[in-house]
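Re: Re: token formats

Sure, here are both.
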Amino acid sequence: MAQVLKGKEVVDALVETMKKDVEALKAKGVTPTLGIIRLGERDDDISYERGAVKRCASVGVAVKHYVLQADAAGEQLLDVIHEVNADRNVHGALIFRPLPKHIDDNTVRAALLPEKDIDGITGGSLAGVFANISMGFPPCTAEACMSILAHYGIDPAGKRVTVVGRSMVIGRPVAMMLMHKDATVTICHTKTKDLPSVVREGEIVIVAAGKAETLTGEYFREGQTVIDVGIHVKEDGGLCGDVKFAEAEPVVKAITPVPGGVGAVTTFVTIQHVIEAARSFVAHP
């Protein structure tokens, strides 16, 4: 049986560190503050916002809310983003997406300062990831994968890593982050020829295919570490990942569960980025 890489253990370690970091910042007169920018009253957005506020409170991070009507003009949203950019007391911004269809997503992402882009959505943040320089923040899910590997002592240096998925949200940025840790990385996707054989080559496999349980037992071999980024709702209402856990778990060395794996860590990486942004503010007021 595989070692199950539970996200809760990673979160517990992150929370303890974050609490100490927040205390140190408050001692210097700075309260790390997250700005949440939301358009409309979608139930899933409100639910996520409520959870984010609770998680922020658990480590001492403050939250400021910016709520617009769903039919607000793009210029109104840009005005809010410029307000957040200029507010020295708001250290990071989280823009709820997808945006309404009448608003251009590229324009909105370009308007946010990279240093306040805690979700890694701006071109500046992605440039920082690809160039391995301190600019903005990596996409939170990609960094959550790295945090899980680090917490469980799985060093990618010198290892062959297969990344299934090529999106700018997970696949490509996590591949770059792994390369910066001296891994040899292969990026593939659902249109890769003989995908199972390519996946089996990886000592570490990051799966962000975006399709429920698409990677079955034939994709895996003994000794592999599998990080499953996907999360999907099954017909019976349960949750599953991109990997068919019941088939992979008896074969591989270690694997993240769904739920309770990458997703659990991602939500706290967002808050970690707010704290890092506040720390940067103290260092460079």
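Second one below.
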Amino acid sequence: MALATLAMSALCVRLGFWQWRSWLATEAAWTRFARGADAVQPLGARRLADVPLYQRVSLAGRLDDAHQFLLDNRSHRGNPGYEVLTPLTRDGAPALLVDRGWVPFTGSRARLPQVPVTQSAPLNLSGRVADLPSAGLASGRAAPAPGEPWPKVTSFPTPAELADALGAPLEKRILLLDPAAPAGFVRDWQPPGMSPLRHLSYAIQWWCFAALALILAAVLGVRRARAARTAR
């Protein structure tokens, strides 16, 4: 019983530190997300990798509506749907994917939503630099199918898989189109992951479980010792 209690307490302490590290990482990410909204920086010929994550940038280019991706398993206020990733071609710089926002599920996988680009001329856009969403489990991933028509449905793809499907080099990061920018859909961007305070509360809970297990073990040990003395 003592060994089992120590093992359980050690596990709870370890889980608490795991949540503590998650709290620190999420707190830093949310801080970067808030700071990125302060000012818009012209991107120019720089790559998105050269700009801090979540920084707002402005750039010019042409949206390629003939080769779009529908990012599956994305929800908005509990409703299923897709996020629309559209390549943006730029003069003298690699193409990048613009997340134009969320569109609702049509009710049938055989009928994809219409996601046209209404303006064919070059556009001046602004948005946040971000990473592609990542799946918690590898089973949630689905690369774009080579033989499927455009737009291609994909779920938590890697940048390399998107570049292979497009047949052209792509930036590894994407641009979250500003809510006020043209050519977009529903854009209610939030910092990544759950609230940092939830991670902190989970850490405290795991440490409380560890302490509770030790206290209960100590109480039971005292009771057994008393019962043994009484029996003698």
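The longest helix spans residues 196-231. The helical segments are 2-36, 159-166, 196-231.
- S.
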